[in-house]
Design goal:
heterodimer; A: mainly beta; seven-stranded mixed β-sheet; four-stranded antiparallel β-sheet; globular; B: six-stranded mixed β-sheet; five-stranded antiparallel β-sheet
Chain lengths: ~110, ~120
Amino acid sequence: EPEVTQTPSHQVTQMGQEVILRCVPISNHLYFYWYRQILGQKVEFLVSFYNNEISEKSEIFDDQFSVERPDGSNFTLKIRSTKLEDSAMYFCASTSELQETQYFGPGTRLLVL
Amino acid sequence: AQSVTQLGSHVSVSEGALVLLRCNYSSSVPPYLFWYVQYPNQGLQLLLKYTTGATLVKGINGFEAEFKKSETSFHLTKPSAHMSDAAEYFCAVSDVGSGGYQKVTFGIGTKLQVIP
């Protein structure tokens, strides 16, 4: 069964450093998403992406964040200058043209020191 | 704006007992409803979903949920809990966001503990 994959599974970085989280969505999916889950809190929507542009973003998704689909398979989330409060689990998700069900990757646990 | 309320952040049941995890939602349009499960240190796995049609939906691992429009509820049940059911369960609702694209809103999550 096709699945969403994410790399790395864990990332530790110093405050102020740039990080890039990578996702490979399900191959025939057209809509891509990033969510985050701060430890002990609910899963929060960050951004949705379609046709090579952001379709919607939350208040959390400020200028420090960017997303890109650099090739036909990868979907990346970049945090330009990490802050302590960026420590969280980041989930990528994708959905087909029907936009019925979002399938989630296993997540990347980011720790900012 | 849509929202999801999960009653009970922690639920404990004995092995073999009924599991009932409550979820109420608000949405301005007929929603799609989901339950996701998250095992320790793992990602979100789709347990079941309601989109249209039959209001009682069956998912993996013996779980099922019933969409009750009049009560705006989508409670998750399992007749007999197993130790392997211990996990965190998230109810979620989706509809089309302001940009015309699907947007999923999650509840706070319910941690299920199964007591031997």
